[in-house]
């Protein structure tokens, strides 16, 4: 196999069109680092497993559906514990930071990072960075132990606090260097992962033995390469309560209309999955599928048809749906501190337009109830499925950092957890 000379990205090629999007390693810029036996070999929880170390050459295919004559395609390095590690347990000084918006499962990821580092690798020094990226230089840090995080997975939000923006690369890396931190675990979305990539590049430029691992967070489930983002299952489950309330309201009155707005800035996964799970939704509007209001085949015509046939209708709309229909006076060209475009409330806009159309043009008496459970959904703790998933993500990140990998994010690809380089992962948020 031949490795490209470019440090970014790190590409490995092989026969049959095999391409490995490899992750950076500490030895790429700090040669001759010593290695140590993985302490997991003496861990009774792992010793019962016949083969618990991942083969160094194991990779995960990005696409598993191929034609017989097609190339083998892009692969990612498989995650998991390695036989040799590049950090001694007493040497590790780890830190954890959460950035961006809230999401079910954040506390679970924090808990499992702390417990995994402590119980699997006997790490004793773990810091929590408070308040997002600016916490590295503008807020206090707090020592975290398994006792501190024992039951935080039962709570929503993040015990470390979070914020958008506040990314000052020099100050952050100065703080990492001054505090003697050598493992950085970053939990956040697209802006956060871009920030983590910049931090990694500055650390590499300075030649520091610091592993940077990202755990991608987006409640919208819109990262194409990984199977699912954490918090999504919990969000869909909680959305059922709002949809059920809208359905009860709508069917209890004559010409009842229930409108529920769910999260989904550029993708409608929550809205779509909640609709499919509910079976009470008559119309689901998502950003990927444009729609129009008036005329044949328009939304108004469909609403009227459902009202005449069933006497009520339930509509679910993702927050990014129908943006092109909003009048120019309502559209904003503004961004939040993470660089996300600020959107108008399409649910309120749509509800008002429906009311105006049926009362003024069709002279119909309707009763419309609008429900926006956005912050209720993202503030809940993770459910059972997400708690298991968050544990696997956290442990994958730990195994990678201990093995000397850096500049990567973790996630399942076709059912197998893998390490994805920052140069690939944060671009995937933009697809």
SSE topology string: EEEEHEEEEHEHEHEHEHEHEHEHEHHEEH
> Which band does the percent of strand residues land in?
15-25%
Overall average residue pLDDT: 90
Separation of the first and last Cα atoms = 30 Å
Largest sheet: 12 strands, mixed
Alpha carbon gyration radius:
24 Å
Described by the principal axes of the CA atoms, the overall outline is elongated
Number of strands: 18
Which consecutive residue ranges, at least 5 long each, have pLDDT under 50?
1-7
- In which range does the helix fraction lie? 25-40%
Q: Treating each run of at least 4 consecutive H or I residues as one helix, how many helices? A: 12
The structural class is: alpha/beta
Which helices and strands appear, and what pairs or packs with what?
Layout: E1 2-3, E2 10-14, E3 18-22, E4 36-37, H1 44-47, E5 59-61, E6 73-78, E7 84-85, E8 93-98, H2 106-121, E9 125-129, H3 135-138, E10 141-143, H4 169-179, E11 183-188, H5 190-206, E12 211-216, H6 232-251, E13 256-262, H7 269-278, E14 283-285, H8 299-310, E15 312-318, H9 346-361, E16 367-371, H10 374-378, H11 384-402, E17 408-413, E18 416-421, H12 422-428
Parallel strand pairs: 3-6, 8-9, 8-11, 11-12, 12-17, 13-15, 13-16, 14-15
Antiparallel strand pairs: 1-2, 2-3, 4-7, 5-6, 6-18, 9-10, 17-18
